[in-house]
Design brief:
217 residues; 7 strands; 38% helix; alpha/beta; Rossmann fold
Amino acid sequence: MTVDSWSTQYAARREIAKRFGDVFSLPLAKRPRDVLLDQLGDGGCVLEVGAGDRRMKRALEEGRNVVYRSLDVDPHGRHDFRDWCEIDEAFDLIFAFEVVEHVEVAALADMLSNVKRALKPGGRLVLSTPNIYYPPAYLRDVTHRTPLCFDELGGLVERAGLRVTRVLRTYHDPLHRRLLKRYALGWLFRTLGIDFARQIVLVAENPAETQATRSAA
């Protein structure tokens, strides 16, 4: 997939916005991890992209029949893969937490194409990224390169051949603060165009092969 066609990307972005509404319409979850575990179910073969210290491995394997793999360019980490070209297996779920904002758009398009190839039919992708409507989440890290509105990211994901099924915002704070910001001050955040939710989490699915597709192959 390439990103050289502005009109195609814009149309894909508009489709996501039409389907999910504006950022303030997106449902809330506490953490990206909660969304991931909900998608994982009882188990499967899982790939974490940009795995860092692999801290998610234990959480994923606890009480589940999970085969965990990690992909990371860090030469000092104990990872299964350093590059997409090394991967020779298919996954039920691929996830990347706080990764996509660190790469240029062209590299992100390549990454999503690789995700598409590595996912089993019906497999799922879970991505998180800073919510650009909550400016500190993106601006406080000098290594961030690409600010991604949820509809822009969703457009890129769908152009790679995946189907976006859910988009959420995440915000984890004591109950009284959540109620205050969501209900008492919600009108103010909408008026100012600034959100209190720190992250966006996107869930997509690799469409299963149809009988017509298999016959054509």
